[in-house]
TrEMBL record:
PROSITE patterns: PROKAR_LIPOPROTEIN. Residues 37-50 have a biased composition (Basic and acidic residues). It comes from Actinomadura hallensis. The lineage of its organism: Bacteria, Bacillati, Actinomycetota, Actinomycetes, Streptosporangiales. This is Uncharacterized protein DUF4352. Residues 30-50 are annotated as: Disordered.
Amino acid sequence: MRKMTIVGLAAVAVLTAGCELEEDPVAVQPAESGKAAGKEGGEAKGKDVPIKLTAKRAKADRSVLSSGGALSCVKVTVKNQTKKQLDVNPLYFSITDTDDTKHDSSSALGEYEGQIDTTELAPGEKATGLVCAKGKFRPKIVAMTNPLFSEAARAEVAP
């Protein structure tokens, strides 16, 4: 009986220990080649990353579903540099502003025209579209997650 309890507790400890591990942050890809990346993640060069992500500030045209209010947007390009298919979805993006506040792109879905499509990219393919969040702020970093919502790529936003 005591042996079962010890084995059970050891199993629980092993399972919960894995849940508490934090992954290293994904490196921030610079807005322009040759520029240093953000302080947090180090420098990431275009060919060194599996998902090349670029972003530039942009304005969006309102859709017929728009409820009004301010939107802050970036035009993103995602390039699949892996050997596997890559899922892209507007829900996989977030924008961090200059005050380091993270804004979820789901807050503005349907509010604007030209959002990045939900698609699957083959190796070497790329997709371009807008990512917006509600509110008036200056975008600094755009991040993309994978289908399991783990961060997959980050990039500085060019002016």
